[in-house]
Amino acid sequence: xxxxxxxxxxxxxxxxxxxxxxxxxxxxxxxxxxxxxxxxxxxxxxxxxxxxxxxxxxxxxxxxxxxxxxxxxxxxxxxxxxxxxxxxxxxxxxxxxxxxxxxxxxxxxxxxxxxxxxxxxxxxxxxxxxxxxxxxxxxxxxxxxxxxxxxxxxxxxxxxxxxxxxxxxxxxxxxxxxxxxxxxxxxxxxxxxxxxxxxxxxxxxxxxxxxxxxxxxxxxxxxxxxxxxxxxxxxxxxxxxxxxxxxxxxxxxxxxxxxxxxxxxxxxxxxxxxxxxxxxxxxxxxxxxxxxxxxxxxxxxxxxxxxxxxxx
Length: 312
Prior knowledge:
Helices cover 23% and strands 28% of the residues. It has helices at residues 136-158, 195-202, 250-263, 282-294, 298-311, and strands spanning 29-31, 55-71, 80-94, 98-111, 119-120, 125-126, 128-130, 164-169, 181-185, 213-216, 220-227, 239-245. A ten-stranded mixed β-sheet has the order 1-10-11-12-9-8-2-3-4-7.
């Protein structure tokens, strides 16, 4: 038998939707019979007459490291690292037409140095945001946390209907109390399902999903896999994972899962327009472009920060 070969549809500069560790066993606690007993698992197609939200809100954020900064307090021989970061968040409202709303942006210089001061340049001011840890990963996590706070504020400020669906780009952790909200995961870091049920994921046709199940790691949530329209035969091409709060009832989970099969596939991007197609939804790609523009010119900001440092 000839070996089967497929090319991943994502631009290689963005990695892959399926990480190198995705086939490793997961240590998560699973509840597989949330919607359907495991022995009866099969692809689920959208049923007629199920709830379809009147509008969809998609929230996303972007961040950028504008410069690495070193603070050397008086009398100290070793400098302390910091990063000057810019980040922004916004919402796309879809109710027959799509438009960007509620864009917010912020900056900061993140460091564990107690004596650090704000960075002030002609183009932007970076307020000091002290972190508990001083390693680079600690600083990045702090930036990520503040960006997620900005996303949450943007999402809450735009909700005007009791008949909407909020889609958060990324895991739902820390945002599970928001009603009618789905976390949208584009890349897969672990294989949560046993081999025989992963076969159901591989068998999904565009617009179909797996039955909902529950994952317990450092936090718990209900989840399902969904396939978007895609031409590639690459393993798990077009597969995304959606997750919702574990506080929801079975009926609420199924309603949100069915809603996702209606609203997400039509928003899938195409390879000739987006290097991360189809998982990087069209509204997400457009919102990211708008947010990055709001962050300002990275080269000019870096130059201003360098000039500021030279005068201190």
